[in-house]
């Protein structure tokens, strides 16, 4: 039997030494959760640290990511080569795999980036969904693993954490376990400053199994972990812990969270825990216990490889994990009449049911306007075959689940809601961009085109706010053809997320050609002028239709006008300057986008003009609003005459 | 006794007729909650519709704002002049007070803008906090009212709704009551698609009183409302309702939410409810019942005016509601050594304790770095005298509470957290901008200056994302002087919110003069060149110190260099073009901001340069990161030489 207490102390001292070496860090979690983590790894976790990318491994998420030294200590002690002692000595230094908060590095056993409170457990929900969906498809011989999340008080106070509790209970994700570090301390002081809730009762209300244990009692923890594995419900193991356990001065104190550690702390902790070893030295017997404990995972990994060798589903299993794109890209029926781009998007999504069976649609109460459900059955507590997850009105959770699914592998997540609600989902979307995960965020109701629901529901600054975000591609396609193109580019992009902003109101069909995906260049001349260019109209989304109409009138007046469609700034930004200039021309420019002008100075010169929104919207029908805010063909024509005259 | 059932039917038919007249709308809520609302107004609510701005009125929040016709019907029937029958006939039309979702118009009885799910109940929490804080200050003779929120399933699924439940229980806001429309239908279909939670148990876990009633049983509702008023705990009245009650075709159905209504629906509802009256006709007897019911509120209002007349606290009560600024503005000690602007901000906030006693600080687990608590005691369940609310790790709720407090009146809300968490709070901040509420959002940890906590915690695109937002002022002050100036401008601004982005790391003291608030112009020449300007450095925040240092080196090289500090784009944007040009000059420009370049083309020409962040940050100390990302004095100098040479 391994000496789990010593295994736990090894975590403690690695954390202490690394934090002292770095000069700063958060000791509260690794010291407080050492027994919990050691027991999990010793007797329950299924991982093979020599093969950190093994698809059927258990997933471990450190949602309380500030306690990152807990994770690094676990990875080091369990034998993950990338987390060497040398790496731990670079904790919190530039370029270290041991960053201040865990940054996704799956080859090093770091499953996902965590640190912003709540994101981790919400990602864990996505991982647990992914496992169940894949198990339904490929069977338990190939897919049968669990998700364990270390969780702090902050994660549970966050709204997204509460959304997670609710949806996990609803979906009965029984292989997901939260290990709650109930240390009763937050950064601001005692948790009692801000919460009086009966947290176990809150989980029980959402149909979880709740087990309350002393978080330093190894036998109790072990029994709780066994119970979590045997109960069909998701489990909360509420671990009553002492923050910074082991440092006499800080145990159970607010300073236990991250107060600077002194030489004296090190001396006193070594004395208190009878640890005579120098800094960064772990006795071989303890390393051996850790190594032996990992044998269970190594065996499981080998058995899995053997099972897979002749498994009839091995080939599709691999294919789903590589997530190849359909070739050729499914062709779409061209609508003859103006069609909302959300509807065209729904058509694409439908076609992908056959061409990319590993797509998984997450949806925040928005089935009707995007049609995604037409061919997709629901993923539910009793049927894991569905490729459509009703996430409820929980946008923030949904975005993070999409990250967790992408990080898990095997599935292509597609998260759907209203664009106005992207503000709720934004922090999770940023995590997708930061982690460079291939998530597709699809939004409907992209502008004042929403109509009478009014300014709360009308995005104005959303496009700009995401164009400002590193590694996020923002698409606002003009019609059905560009919508299909945007889907294709977004799914091809494996090193970051994409956002599709789609219209509720009908979009004129401005493109007929489909031989080349012209959206790839970000912007292109949608309609050439009849003669040497006197004016360029630049439009995105439904405003392309207005531009085409204005072009016809201006050409009739003898003003040769080009229309440039610009579905994606970020792609256009990557074009050489000469190509940009060729497309945008040197003639006066008018940009038309029913959104904030913020950022448009990137493509407009002082002499150019912008037609869009400088205020919030209003409550009226879309037609009335476009007229009211002056986003009209007449206004374009009028402005064009002015510019051409003064040019 | 009033005929409450008929009063309820009057709501139903006004809603039906208005929605049919508009051609679209959401009938589910007004038809489903008609008895609940009528009973509340008939027997419990304390308002005087003839004096909608009476400070001691009960506050009513329609958190399920899509059901706006419920609110408009209530306001009309209770005698609010601004909501005439003619106004109701313009429901959902441009300029109507009866917008698609309620838009704040307090003279018309619309307390707050609602519609984005969860925002309403979170604002209601702020209102309930405001009432208790003001009551502690002025006594129950002047302040003693309740807050009632109509709540839908969506509001409770949202994370911010869950945050509200938790904090309300913790603070024991006993005068806050949620009236939950438990109709078991969302836009996407049955609530059972996405939730299995025992919602009453969830509220009980958070120390609420929960009363479950048939939402169409007037006696049961009445008893529940009485119980809510007498119990010291906050109350959830869980009203089991039938969505779209009264329309045989839609009752209890998904289409009850907002399916288009037909002539036949109108005929059938009139038959079913024995309502022979034509559209928009309410019998006088019913109007009379409504009018009589309002007598209670009118009496209360008159009694309150009488009590106030000779009340010793009448003058400060009025003063708090007018929220005058301190004059002269408190002077601040000038730090000699570089000082974090969060610390300077804490100094200002401390001084305001005396000068603006009606300030109320809301804080999401961030006491330490902003020092706000130094002189402020906590507002708790047992002590309402505190001016510091521990909101816990619940940023989204906190932002909306600030809106609710501002809308309530009498207090100046100041919401504090880390800038990276503004993504969590953003939707509520947008509501403040949309409602033009004077909320001050204070953020610390404004950039990679955060250091080793890494990219999750380092804002990059946040400044741009808020600069893109209409009616939001974004301040990034350079030092202690600009920090005080930003506070002053933000507090003076009564028609919208402001955001302060403050540094964790020390900021050089670049200003000594304090006679004039130079930040008012948004940007100004912080340091003049020694001769005719050859270069302009434009900086915000802590980068002003780098610019000054670079200026000294460049001047020594014979390059006359101006340094422009630009603490607030939005204010600079309002300057005449000539003033802008005079400040920015015609020489080459280099802008320096440790953030995304997005939007900077507004102030930079193609020949100019930007030094900042084009990617996410990393985990290392602030000094190392500034060096790593090339935001250094040397880099400014190098770039300056290039630009001046090619100029």
TrEMBL record, chains A, B:
Residues engaged in binding Mg(2+): 153, 183, 185
Sorted UniProt keywords: Calcium, Magnesium, Metal-binding, Thiamine pyrophosphate, Transferase
A Pfam family recorded for this sequence: Transket_pyr
Cofactor: Mg(2+); thiamine diphosphate
Annotated residues for binding of thiamine diphosphate: 66, 115-117, 154, 183, 257, 421
Compositionally biased spans, kind Pro residues: 325-338
Xref: Gene3D superfamilies: 3.40.50.920, 3.40.50.970
GO biological process: pentose-phosphate shunt
Sequence segments annotated as region (Disordered): 302-343, 504-523
This protein's name: Transketolase
Organism expressing this protein natively: Marivita hallyeonensis
